[in-house]
């Protein structure tokens, strides 16, 4: 006998699991790699490890494995962004690349909207300065 199908599969599973999140984040970082405002914010030469952290975080958030927290502990994302200057311009650049990445997945409309609206909210929440002249904290 086959195992019963859970009544409510996670969003993680519904959109295709890890490969979908890898595609999303890889596409996003293709944009970041070319971005004059965002690229210098990433301390490492290789964007691979940062891409991995974002992928694992998003997988966990949407009901996939908890590998992110096993490796990194509680997300505390606002705190982790505190060393970086995240103003409206950085937020908008981040969202621009994320929009291209989300669109590239070709998800059904309901899933597309759910994912995009979450990312948009999260990006607004991450803003930690409104002052364009204030240096990074
Ligand atoms: C609003 C504009 C944003 C900017 C400019 C930004 C920038 C950055 C930078 C420079 C890092 C450090 C790179 C690294 O070593 O991982 C980082 C880390 C990270 N960001 Fe963002 N971020 C933004 C929004 C977001 C949003 C909306 C999310 C989640 C939905 C997110 C999730 C993460 C995660 C999970 C990490 C790795 C944290 C860790 O474990 O150390 N970021 N971000």
From TrEMBL:
<dbReference type="InterPro" id="IPR044203">
    <property type="entry name" value="GlbO/GLB3-like"/>
</dbReference>
<dbReference type="InterPro" id="IPR012292">
    <property type="entry name" value="Globin/Proto"/>
</dbReference>
<dbReference type="GO" id="GO:0005344">
    <property type="term" value="F:oxygen carrier activity"/>
</dbReference>
<dbReference type="InterPro" id="IPR001486">
    <property type="entry name" value="Hemoglobin_trunc"/>
</dbReference>
<dbReference type="Pfam" id="PF01152">
    <property type="entry name" value="Bac_globin"/>
</dbReference>
<keyword id="KW-0813">Transport</keyword>
<dbReference type="GO" id="GO:0019825">
    <property type="term" value="F:oxygen binding"/>
</dbReference>
<dbReference type="GO" id="GO:0020037">
    <property type="term" value="F:heme binding"/>
</dbReference>
<dbReference type="InterPro" id="IPR009050">
    <property type="entry name" value="Globin-like_sf"/>
</dbReference>
<protein>
    <submittedName>
        <fullName>Hemoglobin</fullName>
    </submittedName>
</protein>
<keyword id="KW-0479">Metal-binding</keyword>
<dbReference type="GO" id="GO:0046872">
    <property type="term" value="F:metal ion binding"/>
</dbReference>
<comment type="similarity">
    <text>Belongs to the truncated hemoglobin family. Group II subfamily.</text>
</comment>
<keyword id="KW-0349">Heme</keyword>
<keyword id="KW-0408">Iron</keyword>
């Amino acid at each position: 006998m086959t195992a019963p199908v859970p009544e409510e599969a996670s969003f993680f599973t519904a959109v295709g699991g890890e490969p979908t999140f890898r595609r999303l984040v890889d596409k996003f970082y293709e944009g970041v790699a070319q971005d004059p405002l965002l690229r210098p914010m990433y301390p490492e030469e290789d964007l691979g490890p940062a891409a991995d952290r974002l992928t694992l975080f998003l997988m966990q958030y949407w009901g996939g494995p908890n590998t992110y927290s096993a490796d990194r502990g509680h997300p505390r994302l606002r705190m982790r962004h505190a060393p970086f200057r995240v103003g409206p311009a950085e937020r908008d650049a981040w969202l621009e690349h994320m929009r291209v990445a989300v669109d590239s997945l070709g998800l059904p409309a309901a899933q597309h909207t759910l994912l995009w609206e979450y990312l948009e909210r999260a990006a607004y929440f991450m803003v930690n300065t409104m002052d364009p002249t204030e240096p990074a904290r």
